[in-house]
């Protein structure tokens, strides 16, 4: 969740958080779809995630007890590709999930008010993580469904284009913007559409959804909502290997990324270790820096592909 033009602060202890927002759901009788078990995933910054977890896990445990839903977060520094945000997965019955989201968003807003002293509903946004194959059910033919969702909730709803840059990424971001009440209403409407999707429902039974083999890789179920490779259990045939490739010196920056974020993402997604030679240390007879990739053969191949695509995207400009 991100405040537009504001920076969220998290100083108030969980015991002082007051649920002073009236949920727009209380006056609406629950539809039949709310009797189905499902899940919803969204992104939070590290600071926001820490606030939701609370000291010793006190806040997240309290929210689970109050809502009846299960709340899980990806590990620290395990981010959704292309972002520096962690993935939150809330699972259970639809009504319980919405209670949990209500608690989470209210806490963040309460702490925002405590820090800023505001008395007007701030405009904020939350990014949901939705499988590519399920986005059609939200958009509808000619965009008719997403238009109706926007009209009914009064929230802004935008779906990111399909990203083919990251191997194994089958998810898109659905950004919901507006006031607290508008966001809650929009999230509920979107979730009720997703519940109708058999593929989305099947993913509930998968470990954190979509933790399945992709191109022969072994993905671990211990990371919420993402397909980071499980390097603990490798096939005997998939022994460690090493590959050194040359990358033009002027393109090294795109591989490393700001603050090393890109190279960290490549390592996290592929399961390989990526090391770049020092300045002036070139491949023999060239001005290309050495990029050494080590790890299981499959991981090395995935990392090489990701690096090549990054460099190609710059070269084509």
Automatic annotation (TrEMBL):
<protein>
    <submittedName>
        <fullName>Protein BTR1</fullName>
    </submittedName>
</protein>
<feature type="domain" description="K Homology">
    <location>
        <begin position="239"/>
        <end position="312"/>
    </location>
</feature>
<dbReference type="Pfam" id="PF00013">
    <property type="entry name" value="KH_1"/>
</dbReference>
<keyword id="KW-0694">RNA-binding</keyword>
<dbReference type="InterPro" id="IPR004088">
    <property type="entry name" value="KH_dom_type_1"/>
</dbReference>
<dbReference type="GO" id="GO:0003723">
    <property type="term" value="F:RNA binding"/>
</dbReference>
<dbReference type="InterPro" id="IPR036612">
    <property type="entry name" value="KH_dom_type_1_sf"/>
</dbReference>
<feature type="compositionally biased region" description="Polar residues">
    <location>
        <begin position="16"/>
        <end position="26"/>
    </location>
</feature>
<feature type="domain" description="K Homology">
    <location>
        <begin position="122"/>
        <end position="195"/>
    </location>
</feature>
<keyword id="KW-0677">Repeat</keyword>
<feature type="domain" description="K Homology">
    <location>
        <begin position="36"/>
        <end position="109"/>
    </location>
</feature>
<feature type="region of interest" description="Disordered">
    <location>
        <begin position="1"/>
        <end position="35"/>
    </location>
</feature>
<dbReference type="InterPro" id="IPR004087">
    <property type="entry name" value="KH_dom"/>
</dbReference>
């Amino acid at each position: 969740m991100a405040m537009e033009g504001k920076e969220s602060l998290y100083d108030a202890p969980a015991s002082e958080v007051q649920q002073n927002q009236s949920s727009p759901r209380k006056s609406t009788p629950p539809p039949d779809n709310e009797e189905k078990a499902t899940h919803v995933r969204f992104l939070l910054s590290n600071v926001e995630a820490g606030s939701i977890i609370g000291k010793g896990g006190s806040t997240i445990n309290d929210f689970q007890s109050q809502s009846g839903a299960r709340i899980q977060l990806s590990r620290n520094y395990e981010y959704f590709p292309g972002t520096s945000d962690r993935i939150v997965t809330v699972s259970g019955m639809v009504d319980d999930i919405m209670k949990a989201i209500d608690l989470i968003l209210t806490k963040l807003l309460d702490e925002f008010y405590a820090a800023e002293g505001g008395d007007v509903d701030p405009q904020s946004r939350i990014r949901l993580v939705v499988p590519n194959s399920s986005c059609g059910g939200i958009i509808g033919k000619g965009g008719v469904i997403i238009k109706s969702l926007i009209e009914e909730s009064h929230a802004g709803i935008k779906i990111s284009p399909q990203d083919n840059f990251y191997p194994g990424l089958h998810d898109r971001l659905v950004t919901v913007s507006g006031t607290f009440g508008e966001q809650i209403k929009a999230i509920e409407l979107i979730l009720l559409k997703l519940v109708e999707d058999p593929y989305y429902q099947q993913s509930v039974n998968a470990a954190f959804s979509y933790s399945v083999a992709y191109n022969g890789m072994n993905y671990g179920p211990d990371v919420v909502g993402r397909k980071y490779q499980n390097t603990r259990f490798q096939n005997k045939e998939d022994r460690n290997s090493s590959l050194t490739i040359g990358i033009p010196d002027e393109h090294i920056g795109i591989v490393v990324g700001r603050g090393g974020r890109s190279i960290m993402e490549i390592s996290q997604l592929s399961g390989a270790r990526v090391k770049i030679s020092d300045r002036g240390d070139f491949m023999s007879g060239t001005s290309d820096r050495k990029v050494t990739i080590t790890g299981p053969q499959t991981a090395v191949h995935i990392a090489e592909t990701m690096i090549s695509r990054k460099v190609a995207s710059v070269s084509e400009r």
